[in-house]
Amino acid sequence: MGKTNLDEFAMGSGSTDGVFGPVKNPWSYSKQYREKKKQKPHGENEDTNWLITGGSSGGSAAAVSAFTCFAALGSDTGGSTRNPAALCGVVGLKPTYGLVSRHGLIPLVNSMDVPGILTRCVDDAATVLGVLAGHDCKDSTTVQDPVKSFILPSLTDVSKLCIGIPKEYLVPELSSEVQSLWSKAAKLFESEGAKVIEVSLPHTSYSIVCYHVLCTSEVASNMARFDGLEYGHRCDINVSTEAMYAATRREGFNDVVRGRILSGNFFLLKENYENYFIKAQKVRRLIANDFVNVFNSGVDVLLTPTTLSEAVPYVEFIKEDNRTRSAQGDIFTQAVNMAGLPAVSVPMALSNQGLPIGLQFIGRAFCDQQLLTVAKWFEKQVQFPIIQLQEIMGDCSSVFENDLASVSLKQ
Amino acid sequence: MAAPVLRWSCPARRWILANIDRGPRHGRGSPTGSRSSGKRGQSSVAQQPLATAQKPRKGEHQWAAVVGLEIHAQISSNSKLFSGSQVHFAAPPNSLVSFFDASLPGTLPVLNRRCVEAAVMTGLALNCHINKKSLFDRKHYFYADLPAGYQITQQRLPIAVKGSLAYSVFVGKNRNQVINKTVRIKQIQLEQDSGKSLHDDLRSQTLIDLNRAEGQLRVDANISVHHPGEPLGVRTEVKNLNSARFLAKAIDYEIQRQIEELENGGEILNETRSFDCKLGCTVPMRDKEGKQDYRFIPEPNLPPLLLYDSASLPAGADPQQVINIDQLREQLPELPRVTREKLVQQYGMLPEHSFTLLNEVGLLEFFQNVMKETRAEPKRVTSWVLNTFLGFLKQQNLAVSESPVTPSALAELLNLLDQKTISSAAAKKVFEELWRSGGKTPAQIVSEKRLELMQDQEALEELCQATMEKHPQVVMDLKKGNPRAINKLIGLVRKATLNRADPTVIKEMLERQLSS
């Protein structure tokens, strides 16, 4: 078992704001990327233009992407598993809320968090889900029914499938490459006999703001326990309890975390609660209902982009603050958390720069198996290339002969 | 206690003479809902004001006081309200702390069934409406004994609401006049308890024990005063009173303080105070910047608590997973009021006696056990249990369970008395001996100390005769009409019998002999 890096307290969409430093996307060192960049594969002392992994579970995505492990766990509150999965070319699964126990998961937003699963192929994700899913008496928000582990069928006929394309997800900031791949994927399903229709999720534009209010509010509450008394960092001041709390929390939390706590506490003040928290909860219900309505109209699965673009260089990413980047990074993913639905990012193809682009499938609540079945079909169709790290891995080429490598390698 | 002013006229208390109607001692629950804590699960009870209006008398300043109580009662359960850790009285510090109790991130609350049942039963016993759906909330504040930085409570929708408790107050010279009163219960809610803080002033530090606070019953009182007919006054909160005596004193003091303050043109601050039991006064607690905003949010880790009754129970529901209110109602033990009524009915007991019997732990059972084994009249048994037996217990500060006299022993004693084998006075002596020596039976003691009453009536007649002959001047006194003479004679006869004759019997005999 290994531990991986992340944005501090899972707040961020770049995995750049962790106390251990930023996470580097393995694709930065891939043959595919370097060739396109016309860079020498070896010998460069400079490593200045490496790419971010996305986040907040970037370390886990990188670990899987670089073949260091079979699978990794992340968390997904607004897209923190799916986002880095897309940017690192791996499968990132967000299960239905209530399917997988949150006991042991450091809480960010209790009503939206789920443990996320990162693997190199959809079958692996299904395997891990089968192990993790089911009722846990230590988590009162897990469903009562036990869940059996399952093997995904290999779908051959998609003619009975109905794919929904939410029109509100076509935003101006979407890169042309991602948009074109999204179109291509829709056409792929159509050409194989599936019904592909445009649908509407009318409250999409309110989603990111609503998410922000609810997220910061719960964060303010969940972070209250970090006072240095029982565990974790404690400052040296012992003049008074209050002074100790203040210094400990100032030292122990980075700007991003402190900013969210302050915002959240503002929204929860008696005079603001009705206008912010309650209002946001109501909007959340509307957003969730959007999905319910779409699924009730005969759609099985929604197809959307996962990210606005492929991975960007770190030096570019840090030009904007965490809040801005998070709003951009989470744009296609956070509504799913608000609705508690399952979703999976599946890598589709490389960009012109040789970097992975993934697409997101969103399913009905507790229909994770069905969702993964569709994802598996798609994965087989697109045949996403394996990352080529041989040159920098030197004598590690034996890894590729190892049985522990994912199924897709054997194709 | 809500007696008209006159009964309270006690010159030292100036404010009483100013015609203050104390109002009933139950009152408003705080607007934010009453609290009770208990990670172990506690129920709390808040009461609403019964503002009394009195017709203002001419030229006099009327004051009415309104009091609300928040009662924190720890539920008796094996484990805590939300964590699986055990509950043991006086365990070593921090020895019963689970990850959840220490607020380690990643831990989640899991509701304790027994605590919910206890809350429902409390609600039923207090005539509350049980909410079939109730919710949990987080109440945020920073304090060292609150590791998570928030307390899980039921602020929005508690488990039980709108109850009442009927009770009686005994007044009058002999405390034998009963006034029946009712207090309203605003709500009952489940909530977590905080840890225990121990302030070490020597080292300027505070030690925290997360086992959870001791003190199974704590009360906060909310007090305000106003002129009848006018709006309610600003209230203060007096916290953490843990005895009925201090509660009463604190309330009395605070009412007086507020009245004096207002009559002197001052104002009452909406503040929290504590009670200094040594000085007998309330003092402001260290107040920060005005009122606390607890930033309540719904507790996202606990779904709404759903309760069922027999009508609404879903078919095929797993009994492990559901709580049936009707079933709990059936399991309720007999409530004290009912027990008292039965005692009054069954034994012709005075109501105030039924209260005393029930107010002492184990006393009712003791009484009933004595009744089982004796033929004596209930009134006599009651008197012996409440006066003699209880008296001895109190004197030595013993609980009923620690009594050296068993119900059987007392029953036997009362039988001897009943059979007129011994006199009342002798019985008292026997009781004393029973208490002291423990092992012996009443019969043994009677025989050892030769306390049996004289059974030989003829011999007694002779003694009476002889005594009168020996003391002619007393007889003459008696014939003259001196009321004390008869007692002297009785005393002399008794002495002659070595105290083995009943004074009543002696008196009878003497009077008969004198009149013949």
How would you describe this protein?
The complex is a heterodimer of chains A (411) and B (516). Chain A is an alpha+beta fold and 411 residues long. Chain A has a single domain (8-391), classed as Amidase signature (AS) domain (Amidase signature (AS) enzymes, Alpha-Beta Complex). Chain A has helices at 31-37, 58-65, 82-88, 122-132, 176-191, 204-222, 241-252, 255-268, 270-296, 314-317, 322-329, 334-339, 368-382, 390-393; strands at 71-76, 91-94, 114-119, 162-166, 195-199, 301-305, 343-350, 356-362. The two termini of chain A are 28 Å apart. Residues 402-411 of chain A have low confidence and may be disordered. In chain B, a hairpin with a 5-residue loop joins strand 8 and strand 9. In chain B, helix 7 (363-373) crosses helix 8, helix 7 crosses helix 9 and helix 9 (407-418) runs antiparallel to helix 10. The chains are: A alpha+beta (411), B alpha+beta (516). The interface between A and B is medium-sized, with 37 and 31 residues.
What is the structure about, briefly put?
In chain A, 38% of the residues lie in helices and 11% in strands.
The description of the largest β-sheet of chain B is: 10 strands, mixed
Ranges of chain A with pLDDT <50 over ≥5 residues? Answer: 402-411
What integer is the average pLDDT of chain A? 92
Could you give the count of β-strands of chain B?
A: 17
Distance between the termini of chain A: 28 Å
Major sheet strand order of chain A: 1-3-2-7-8-6-4-5
Structural class of chain A, by secondary structure, is alpha+beta
CATH topology of chain A: Amidase signature (AS) enzymes
Radius of gyration of chain A: 21 Å
Q: How many helix segments of chain A? A: 14
The greatest inter-chain interface is formed by: A-B, 37 and 31 residues
- For the record, the CATH architecture of chain A stands as Alpha-Beta Complex
User: What low-confidence regions of chain B span 5 or more consecutive residues with pLDDT below 50?
Assistant: 1-60
Radius of gyration of chain B: 31 Å
Seen as an oligomer or otherwise, the chain set is: heterodimer
Task: Based on Cα principal axes, name the global outline of chain B.
Answer: elongated
Major sheet summary line of chain A: 8 strands, mixed
Order of helices and strands of chain A: HHEHEEHEHEHHHHEHHHEEHH
Mean pLDDT of chain B: 83
> What distance lies between the first and last C-alpha atoms of chain B, to the nearest angstrom?
57 Å
Q: Tell me the structural class of chain B.
A: alpha+beta
Active site (chain A): 56, 80
Subunit structure (chain A): Subunit of the heterotrimeric GatCAB amidotransferase (AdT) complex, composed of A (QRSL1), B (GATB) and C (GATC) subunits.
Catalytic activity (chain A): L-glutamyl-tRNA(Gln) + L-glutamine + ATP + H2O = L-glutaminyl-tRNA(Gln) + L-glutamate + ADP + phosphate + H(+)
GO molecular function (chain A): ATP binding; glutaminyl-tRNA synthase (glutamine-hydrolyzing) activity; transferase activity
